[in-house]
Amino acid sequence: MKTPINFKTINNLAIPATIAGIAEPILSITDTAIVGNIPQDGMESLAAAGIVGSFLSMLIWILGQTRSAISAILSQYLGAGKLERVKTLPAQAIFLNILLSIVILLSTVFIVEEIFVLLNASGKILELCISYYSIRVWGFPLTLFVFAVMGIFRGLQNTYYPMLIAITGAVLNIVLDFILVYGVEGIVSPMYLEGAAWASLIAQGIMAVMAFVLLITKTNISLALKFPLHPELGRLVVMSLNLFVRALALNIALILAVREATALGDKYIGAHTIAINLWLFSAFFIDGYGAAGNIMGGKLLGAKNYDGLWELAKKIMLYGFVISLILAAVGFLFYRPIGSIFSNDISVLQTFYSIFFILILGIPMNMVAFVFDGLFKGLGEMKYLRNVLLVATFLGFVPMLFLGKFLGWGLYGIWIAFTLWMFIRGGALVWKFRRKFRPLLQNV
């Protein structure tokens, strides 16, 4: 199946995927900015939102890996011209994932306090974490359902509908944030941090309904659960489990960073919350080209078009590099106004400004890891992605994090550990891609 590898084809997938991808960090950034400026308990609310957000992101990323597995399998069958053979697979995968998410939800909701005590939350921050999480956690199965539907659309080479879903959720969340957090005089009383949680939950519900309607009306994929189990379900589960372990290692790094920042004090976790949200925003912004690599890479592999696959890798790297330079330049020029959006506390802002340069300098290097990460998911290389994350986390990030703690580097040590982490991830993926696919090229 012939797939053109050019600027238009790549960006027709990458631009909507970028918009859809940045919707999630925009939600977190909006919550962070609005919560950080709450007139009462602003610093504590910002810290609680950061701690809870990191924990929820861990759960979503760990259990949301079915999205990438579904996308990879569908795109490979599409490239091979055999899509009809896997039409019953998505429904089985979604039901399995949602069932697991409900089990996880019910097992965490009764030990909320213990979870956040482990993350070093205490006093007022702990109280706010519990109230915030107790509302937001119910959106967890909804988000996983939306992720799975987005994976189906990606496998079908469509990033437009996921973009519509994401934009709707982001805009709705922002509007509801202002209404529910600050209130509307004479109509809605201010709910502060709990208002941000309700805004997110309502937006997630609307996104789930929208995803369901679009899948039913715009594709031939059925959500009716049919038996027997599809033969590819086993491969999908193995791929998902590899990504599950990978996401667990990834989130161990993120959670350890939050824990160490929390232990440093309120202003440090406040500054880290701002920095990690901006880091995630840049990641998802660049990840649009990783998504294009995911979508097109699986299709090209299914068609055994290795020359096209090599050309795709070169072009998404080039486009991703340009975007990363633009993001770094914007961050360098506007880092003070950017910081003031999120907090009005001088101690938090000064701490944030002191480490922001590390984040900026790392953006182009991070791009390599994010772009190839997406490409490898499309190729079904989940086992290698798992191993890379395990090595990068436990032989790179964790030793550097605790070395920085031992040497008293404070927040600098946390972000130096992030930089080493990304360097290992990106370098290992580039090496593997060249080693595996260069010998297969016909036109070297």
From TrEMBL:
Its main location: membrane. CDD domains: MATE_DinF_like (cd13136). GO terms for molecular function: antiporter activity; xenobiotic transmembrane transporter activity. The keyword Transmembrane helix applies. GO terms for biological process: monoatomic ion transport. Keywords: Antiport, Cell membrane, Ion transport, Membrane, Transmembrane, Transmembrane helix, Transport. The chain crosses the membrane at residues 46-64, 93-112, 132-153, 160-184, 196-216, 236-257, 269-295, 316-338, 350-372, 384-403, 409-431. Pfam families: MatE. InterPro entries: DinF-like (IPR044644), MATE_fam (IPR002528), MATE_MdtK (IPR050222), MdtK-like (IPR048279). Belongs to the multi antimicrobial extrusion (MATE) (TC 2.A.66.1) family. This is Multidrug-efflux transporter. It comes from Arenibacter palladensis.
